[in-house]
């Protein structure tokens, strides 16, 4: 069997460091020609990190034959600390700031973006911001607006993370950043000023192919979320609703999600 291929690096962004991990197809499990194929860049959710994607990036690289690049946003995982509260336009701001630093550092001419939850909103924002470079976008459990179900789920999670065992479990991935990570999620989304946040102005600027993956029992979003994304983007859309699946399709239904993505990107350069 061939060895799994990956490597890690840090790139500079302003005065900070962004942690990246690159995954390549294991030749023993994939005979796909990876030459000149555009990479897939992953954007994690509100409590996420490169490590919390677990085996998904490598599995996706093996299935698609493409390089998969995952990174920790500033304030998360192994990237630099963030001591500031998130601005309410942080989803769109990621496309303009740290993501651009990654594109420049990796010298990416074209790419595919895949994001989970708030990372899905960021991926959609990137597709709008980079129309000539972004070949396609895949959103998994993304939110396009603030719903009461979302707020209820976040409020419940905020209470649950008061339990030391849950906090320590998350701290394995974020270390001393853990409280900031939690607050960046809960206090941003639950702030009254954030109640009117939406992505409508972003969605109508997306002309590349879009794949929308969503679980039918997502505890943070109703079906109106993927339906809004699918109806407002201008590019060709694939809407994939997974039955008996919650907010983490790539973990709960890994094989199905990988198959969806593999088929979706197979026609792209």
TrEMBL record:
It comes from Acinetobacter rudis. Residues 39-144 form the AB hydrolase-1 domain. This is Alpha/beta hydrolase. It comes from the Bacteria. Keywords: Hydrolase. One of its GO terms (molecular function) is hydrolase activity. The keyword Hydrolase applies.
């Amino acid at each position: 069997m061939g060895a799994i291929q990956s490597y890690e690096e840090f790139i500079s962004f302003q005065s900070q460091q962004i942690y990246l991990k690159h995954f390549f197809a294991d030749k023993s499990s994939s005979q796909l020609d990876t030459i000149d194929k555009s990479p897939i860049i992953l954007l994690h959710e509100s409590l996420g990190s490169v490590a919390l994607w677990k085996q998904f990036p490598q599995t996706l690289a093996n299935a698609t034959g493409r390089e998969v690049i995952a990174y920790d946003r500033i304030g998360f995982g192994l990237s630099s600390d963030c001591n500031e509260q998130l601005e309410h336009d942080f989803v769109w701001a990621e496309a303009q700031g740290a993501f651009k630093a990654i594109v420049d550092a990796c010298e990416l001419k074209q790419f595919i973006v895949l994001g989970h939850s708030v990372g899905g909103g960021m991926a959609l924002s990137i597709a709008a911001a980079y129309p000539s470079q972004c070949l396609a976008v895949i959103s998994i459990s993304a939110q396009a607006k603030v719903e009461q179900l979302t707020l209820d789920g976040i409020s419940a999670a905020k209470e649950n993370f008061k339990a030391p065992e849950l906090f320590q479990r998350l701290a394995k991935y974020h270390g001393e950043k853990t409280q900031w990570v939690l607050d960046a999620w809960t206090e941003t989304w639950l702030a009254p000023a954030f109640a009117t946040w939406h992505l409508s102005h972003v969605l109508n600027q997306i002309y590349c192919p879009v794949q929308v993956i969503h679980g039918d029992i997502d505890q943070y979003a109703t079906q109106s979320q993927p339906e809004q994304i699918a109806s407002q983007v201008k590019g060709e859309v694939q809407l994939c609703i997974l039955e008996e699946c919650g907010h983490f399709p790539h973990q709960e239904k890994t094989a199905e999600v990988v198959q969806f993505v593999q088929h979706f990107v197979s026609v792209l350069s």
